[in-house]
Each structure stands twice: as structure tokens, then as C-alpha cells.
């Protein structure tokens, strides 16, 4: 893990990340001139550049802020013990929350806010209806590295209040063919706990063209906690008892004079689907029953129900010209179709008629919600160095066009839950950076100009079946950023930055929760945008044997969001009120010698919001920042560490530890207007988990790996499950042993 001086600041106005693949494959074509002596020495050094949020490679020691680069080695170490897509982020990114160990990524925030997840620059999920499923969208075996821009950012458009997480797909690194075959078997030694994986990647590179083919299938069994009790099926989607299939294709060709032009296309189709062999059995929390137990699963199937799934498909096209009007032209277009179905539920909000005193329980039904979204995007950009003949002055400019559509329905009865929503946006931007000796200054501007259109609809019986008049809402915002970094010596640097991010709230929640007649979409205050500004200061040291960095950030939003569950309806409620989040992050690594390496990280985040928002009739303002933001949005303090011992040239052992600290939060306030009193209290217990992986490669035979997740078989409750939300009392997974064989030729 490298926590290095780089962040959203310089990328705030930059464009699509899809160019990242080209930047890795043909960095020379992305530069203004083909001459070798004109190329930056670090243009193809992936430890020294980042491409997320920019059209061409950018040296990370010239960008103010904090970026985490998760290497291919770190991804492999995590995959040795678990196939959870977000586990590697929880282990390597200081501000990333604990992994939910599920298909759902509820509570998995970055620095206390929702992050925008990308796959080769294409957004996963929809900001219009955040379904907490957009972290499970591909097989991690096709991912080469992950670039994380920490903090609010508008560099990829809407949806990055917490930052940007971009998964970069595999890139051919050598001439000719390269085949990778991987098999995996995992078990918890419990009934039906076994799982397997088969994957194959084919990478080919020859002169002016290259392509990648990836195929995989993953079968997962049911999960057990350390007490030998089955873990409950997550109501928002489990990876337990599921089957996942992945197809990935990518090809590109360089052409024109000196190969300065490139055309590239990629296609991805990933689907994970539940087997439907188990149903959830609710437990009971301490203090609510004589013998508290967590949720569990038992064999069975709800008649008429359908399998839960994530079905993500995307097409990504890229054209680049490395010498266009003295600069680099990048043109990117993408299309994505994504669907998410959830487990069956028979709560009051799923019934065909209002549940009241006259309701007949014999008429109670099960239903399943399903979110469907589509998006299209076109993002041209142009980068020019030595602008106006001034050495070190660089311009990045372009415009982003995007159209995003989303809706949510109750699939078994084909009812509208969230009506079709369409968001279109045009966002021009310009970003300047100037190298003045050891100091780099940066600043830029982005204009977000979008419009939301919602069809008229009728809410469900649970919300009184009221008619809501459709309409449109315009979103316009000017976003700025600026910052500087001072490279004091070859090893030490300090930075400061300010950046603004633009995001939409989870619009589907307030739309589906309307229960009063006479409402129209354009009068709903809770669908107003989220504007976040972030101030950050930090330092970084990079030496021959290691690195160490730290940062302090202060993130503010005058009309932010947080989620809670209504105790009477058990339904999610979107809270709109001012928010402020502060945090400290530290991370580093040290190579003692060729055999031993250690790394560590620390994160502390605290947030405050108001107990109430400003009155719509102007009778009273919003409350003060007196309510702590709880674990559903902000993770407890985290400490992580790992040690790797390379015991011979072909073998190594890695021990990883992650500790989440205990935390006690409380707050209260009184509203002067009417004397209303408010209070908040939350307590979570910490825990420490250890993972172990052992790798050994035998020449001409392959690589063998033994991975052990939760090495000590620790019994624990996931932090976000310790607070009473809807049916969320889940234990964490107990010890799991995995055997992996990989052969590359």
C-alpha cells in the first residue's frame, strides 16, 4: 500500500479514468511528442503515476493530497484468504470502512461518505438510487490494481462525496501470449460451507495490438461464524450460497505515424446469483430476549420467490491521439446496464393493501425489490504541456456528457416502488498545473449543469397510495479546487489542498417514502444536491527502504445526508442536514531487507450533523452540529498491519492484522422554537482479526497458496450490525481455509 501525496485536488476537473488502460499500455502515445528524451521518466512506472481522474499519466509527487494505490501483490494477498471484492480496501485503505462480507456494501464508506466506484472509468451503480450493491461487479482476478482518490471529488462527475475507487483491469506487459489458469477450493469444514473457483485469463501483446480475455466461475457455500452457527442471509444480498460468472474482453490497436493513435474497446459482463437454498432466521439482541443469538440461516425456499442477483454489463470505447494540436486528445464513450435484485421480504411495506386493524394476516405476501439502471457517457478531453511555451505549465480541459436512468420496482407483483428517473448532465472543465522548481501549484474549475426528470407515479399502499406529480429539477453548480505541493527534498514533501465535490442524494428513498397527497417532484427538498468541500494538509516521506505519510482533512457539507431506520416502519429514512467530518490518516511501509517487509495504517474519523434541518416555513434554522454520525456512515478507529517474510526466492508468508477499536458516541440538543429535546447514543465493541497466506512457486509446475481467513477463529459481531437497524444482527465469518493453484505460461 502506498499512501502518497496525491488527491482529488488536481483531478477535480479532470475527466474519465478509462484512459488509464491506454496510459499503462502506450504511455508514449499519450505524450505530446514521440521522442524518447521527451518522455517523463516515470510515465510507465505505475508506482509513480496515477491515471484516475485524468486523461494521461500524472506523477503523484506533483499532486497535492492523498491517494492510495493498491498493488497487484496486495490484491493477490487478499484473494488468497477471501474473494470478497471490498476486503482488500478494508485492509489497505486507511479511511475505508470494514467489509460487510456480503453482496451488499451497506456501511462501506470512504472517509465517512459514499465513494464513486469505477471499473476502468465506468461508474458502477447509479447515484439516483444507491442500492449498496455497486462493490460486487467483477471478478477481482481480472483487476491489476486499484487507485483510490480519498476525499470528495468531482473529477468523474456525480457520486463521489467520499472519493473515487477505480478498479483497473489487466494489461498485457510482455510480447506474445500469457495464459493464467487459477483454481481455488475453500471450506469452513461445516455442512455446505465449501466453495470453488475456476478462472482463466489470456493476455496477448504483439507490436501494435493487444488484447485480454478473462473468464471465471465462483461457487460459494454457506458461511459459518466462529461458534459454528450459520451466518444469516443478508437482507440486502449475500455472497454466501451463490454462483458468480464473469466474462471480460479487451482489445486495442496503435496506428498512425509512430503509433501515436490508439483505438480500444472492452466489454464486461458479471453476474452473481443466489442459489436460493437458505432463508434467513432472525435472532435477537442482548436485552431483548433471554438467550441472545445472531441471525442465522436454515435450509428452505420461499414459495414463488426469485434468486437475488447483481447483473452488471458494460461496453467501453476509447480513442486517443498523442500528438493532436501539440497535445494529447482522449475521446471516451461508454454504456452500462446494471440490475440488482434483493431477497424476498414480507414486511408491511411490501403488502398489496395497507396493514391496519382490518388487515387479514392470511393475505400477507412476500415481494422482492429490484433496481435497474442504465447509463451512457461521452467524455472528450485534451491535455497540453508547456502551454504558451512556458515550461512546466500544463492544461487539461474537456467536457463530460452523461445520461443516467434508474428505477426500482417490486418484482414479484410488478409494482412501481421508485418511478423511472432520468438524469442528464453536461460538465465542461479546465485544470491548470504549474511546476515552479520544487513546488507544483494546481487549480481548476468545473461547471456541473444537470437536469433530473421523474415520471408521475403512485406510492405503495404502505405509503397511503398517494399520487405524486412528476416533474424536473435542475442542478447547476460551479466547483473549484486549488492546492500546492512542496518537494522539500528528494524524500520529503508537504501539501495543502481545497476541493469541492458534487453528488446527488439517494433520491429513490425520499420519492418512495412520500405519504401525503398533493406532492410534486420539483417541490421535494430532500432531492437537492450534496455539495462537499474538503480541506486537507499532509506530508509524505519516500526513501530507498520505505515510505511514510499522513494527512488531516476537514470535510463539510451544508446540506449533507445520513441514513437511519424509522423505528415504527423499519424503513430507511434519508436525513438531510449539515454535516462535518474530520479525520486523521497515517500509513507506511518498511523493507528491513530482501526477506522482510512490514506495513501499517491508522485511521480516525469523527463526524457531526444536526438533529433537525431548517424548517420549510422559515420558523427556525437547522440545528447545530451536535449529533454524532454513527457507524452506518462512519467507521470506528482502525489500525492495520501486515508482515511479509520471503523465506526463499520462490516462497513467502504474509500475516495481516486489522483492529477496529471500541467507540462510544453520544449527543443531545434542545430546539428553542418548541422546546423539543433530542438525544443520540451509540456504543460499538472493537475486535481484531488475523489472516495468513503462504505462497510457494515450483518452476514449470505453478504457484500454490494456502490462505486462512480469521486465523484465530474469532467470534465477533460486525460493527454496523451492533447497532439495531432492520434485521441486521450478523456475526462475522469464522475461520476459512482456502487452497489456490495458479499456473502461468
3D architecture notes:
With 745 residues, the chain is mainly beta. The longest helix has 8 residues, at 72-79.
Element layout with pairings:
Layout: E1 2-5, H1 8-11, H2 19-25, E2 49-50, E3 58-59, E4 66-70, H3 72-79, H4 87-92, E5 115-119, E6 122-123, E7 143-150, E8 163-169, E9 176-187, E10 195-206, E11 209-220, E12 242-255, E13 261-274, E14 278-281, E15 296-299, E16 309-324, E17 327-341, E18 369-384, E19 393-410, E20 415-436, E21 439-454, E22 457-458, E23 467-469, E24 471-487, E25 492-503, H5 508-512, E26 519-520, E27 530-542, E28 546-565, E29 572-591, E30 596-609, E31 627-628, E32 638-648, E33 651-660, E34 663-670, E35 677-684, E36 687-698, E37 702-709, E38 736-744
Parallel strand pairs: 5-8, 23-26
Antiparallel strand pairs: 1-4, 2-3, 4-7, 5-6, 7-8, 9-10, 9-38, 10-11, 11-12, 12-13, 13-16, 14-15, 16-17, 17-18, 18-19, 19-20, 20-21, 21-24, 22-23, 24-25, 25-27, 27-28, 28-29, 29-30, 30-31, 30-32, 32-33, 33-36, 34-35, 36-37, 37-38
Amino acid at each position: 500500500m502506498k499512501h502518497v501525496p496525491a488527491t482529488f485536488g488536481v483531478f477535480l476537473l479532470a475527466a474519465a479514468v478509462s484512459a488509464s488502460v491506454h496510459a499503462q499500455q502506450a504511455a508514449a502515445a499519450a505524450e505530446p511528442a514521440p521522442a524518447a528524451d521527451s518522455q517523463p521518466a516515470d510515465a510507465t512506472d505505475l508506482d509513480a503515476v496515477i491515471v484516475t481522474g485524468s486523461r494521461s499519466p500524472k506523477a503523484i509527487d506533483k499532486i497535492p493530497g492523498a491517494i492510495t494505490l493498491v498493488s497487484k501483490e496486495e490484491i493477490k494477498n487478499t484473494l488468497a484468504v477471501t474473494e470478497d471484492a471490498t476486503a482488500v480496501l478494508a485492509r489497505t485503505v486507511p479511511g475505508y470502512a470494514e467489509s460487510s462480507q456480503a453482496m451488499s456494501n451497506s456501511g462501506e464508506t470512504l472517509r465517512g461518505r459514499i465513494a464513486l466506484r469505477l471499473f476502468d472509468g465506468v461508474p458502477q451503480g447509479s447515484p439516483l438510487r444507491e442500492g449498496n450493491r455497486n462493490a460486487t461487479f467483477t471478478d477481482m482476478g481480472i483487476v491489476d490494481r486499484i487507485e483510490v482518490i480519498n476525499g470528495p471529488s468531482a473529477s468523474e462527475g456525480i457520486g463521489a462525496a467520499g472519493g473515487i475507487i477505480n478498479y483497473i483491469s489487466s494489461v498485457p506487459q510482455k510480447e506474445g501470449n500469457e495464459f493464467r489458469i487459477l483454481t481455488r477450493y475453500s471450506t469452513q469444514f461445516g455442512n455446505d460451507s465449501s466453495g470453488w473457483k475456476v478462472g482463466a485469463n489470456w493476455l496477448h501483446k504483439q507490436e501494435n495490438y493487444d488484447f485480454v480475455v478473462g473468464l471465471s466461475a465462483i461457487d460459494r457455500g454457506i458461511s459459518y461464524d466462529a461458534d459454528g452457527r450459520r451466518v444469516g442471509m443478508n437482507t440486502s444480498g449475500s455472497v454466501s450460497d451463490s454462483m458468480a460468472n464473469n466474462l471480460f474482453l479487451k482489445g486495442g490497436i496503435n496506428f498512425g505515424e509512430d503509433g501515436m493513435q490508439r483505438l480500444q474497446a472492452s466489454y464486461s459482463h458479471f453476474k452473481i446469483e443466489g442459489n436460493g437454498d437458505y432463508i434467513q432466521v432472525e435472532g435477537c439482541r442482548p436485552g431483548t430476549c433471554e438467550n441472545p443469538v445472531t441471525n442465522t440461516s436454515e435450509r428452505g425456499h420461499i414459495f414463488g420467490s426469485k434468486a437475488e442477483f447483481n447483473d452488471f454489463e458494460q461496453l467501453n470505447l476509447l480513442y486517443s491521439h498523442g500528438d493532436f494540436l501539440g497535445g494529447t486528445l482522449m475521446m471516451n464513450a461508454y454504456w452500462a446496464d446494471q440490475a440488482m435484485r434483493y431477497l424476498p421480504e414480507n414486511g408491511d411495506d411490501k403488502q398489496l393493501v395497507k396493514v391496519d386493524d382490518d388487515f387479514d394476516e392470511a393475505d400477507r405476501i412476500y415481494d422482492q425489490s429490484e433496481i435497474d439502471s442504465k447509463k451512457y457517457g461521452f467524455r472528450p478531453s485534451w491535455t497540453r504541456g508547456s502551454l504558451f511555451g512556458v515550461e512546466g505549465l500544463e492544461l487539461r480541459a474537456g467536457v463530460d456528457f452523461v445520461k443516467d436512468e434508474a428505477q426500482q420496482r417490486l418484482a414479484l407483483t410488478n409494482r412501481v416502488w421508485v418511478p423511472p428517473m432520468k438524469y442528464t448532465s453536461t460538465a465542461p472543465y479546465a485544470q491548470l498545473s504549474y511546476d515552479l522548481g520544487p513546488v507544483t501549484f494546481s487549480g481548476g474549475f468545473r461547471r456541473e449543469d444537470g437536469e433530473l426528470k421523474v415520471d408521475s407515479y403512485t406510492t405503495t399502499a404502505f405509503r397511503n397510495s398517494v399520487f405524486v406529480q412528476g416533474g424536473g429539477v435542475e442542478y447547476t453548480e460551479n466547483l473549484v479546487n486549488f492546492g500546492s505541493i512542496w518537494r522539500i527534498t528528494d524524500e520529503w514533501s508537504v501539501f495543502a489542498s481545497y476541493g469541492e465535490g458534487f453528488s446527488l442524494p439517494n433520491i429513490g428513498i425520499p420519492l418512495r417514502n412520500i405519504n401525503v397527497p398533493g406532492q410534486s417532484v420539483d417541490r421535494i427538498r430532500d432531492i437537492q444536491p450534496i455539495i462537499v468541500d474538503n480541506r486537507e494538509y499532509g506530508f509524505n516521506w519516500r526513501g530507498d527502504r520505505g515510505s511514510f505519510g499522513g494527512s488531516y482533512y476537514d470535510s463539510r457539507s451544508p446540506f449533507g445526508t445520513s441514513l437511519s431506520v424509522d423505528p415504527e416502519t423499519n424503513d430507511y429514512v434519508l436525513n438531510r442536514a449539515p454535516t462535518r467530518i474530520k479525520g486523521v490518516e497515517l500509513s507506511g511501509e518498511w523493507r528491513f531487507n530482501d526477506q522482510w517487509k512490514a506495513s501499517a495504517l491508522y485511521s480516525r474519523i469523527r463526524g457531526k450533523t444536526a438533529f433537525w434541518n431548517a424548517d420549510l416555513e422559515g420558523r427556525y434554522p437547522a440545528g447545530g452540529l451536535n449529533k454524532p454520525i454513527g457507524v452506518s456512515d462512519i467507521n470506528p478507529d482502525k489500525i492495520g498491519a501486515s508482515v511479509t517474510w520471503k523465506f526463499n526466492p520462490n516462497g513467502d508468508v504474509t500475516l495481516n492484522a486489522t483492529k477496529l477499536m471500541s467507540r462510544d458516541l453520544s449527543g443531545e440538543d434542545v430546539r428553542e422554537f418548541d422546546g423539543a429535546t433530542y438525544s443520540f447514543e451509540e456504543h460499538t465493541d472493537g475486535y481484531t482479526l488475523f489472516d495468513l497466506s503462504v505462497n510457494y512457486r515450483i518452476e514449470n509446475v505453478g504457484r500454490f497458496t494456502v490462505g486462512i481467513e480469521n486465523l484465530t477463529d474469532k467470534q465477533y459481531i460486525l460493527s454496523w450490525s451492533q447497532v439495531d437497524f432492520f434485521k441486521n444482527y450478523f456475526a462475522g465469518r469464522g475461520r476459512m481455509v482456502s487452497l489456490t493453484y495458479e499456473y502461468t505460461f
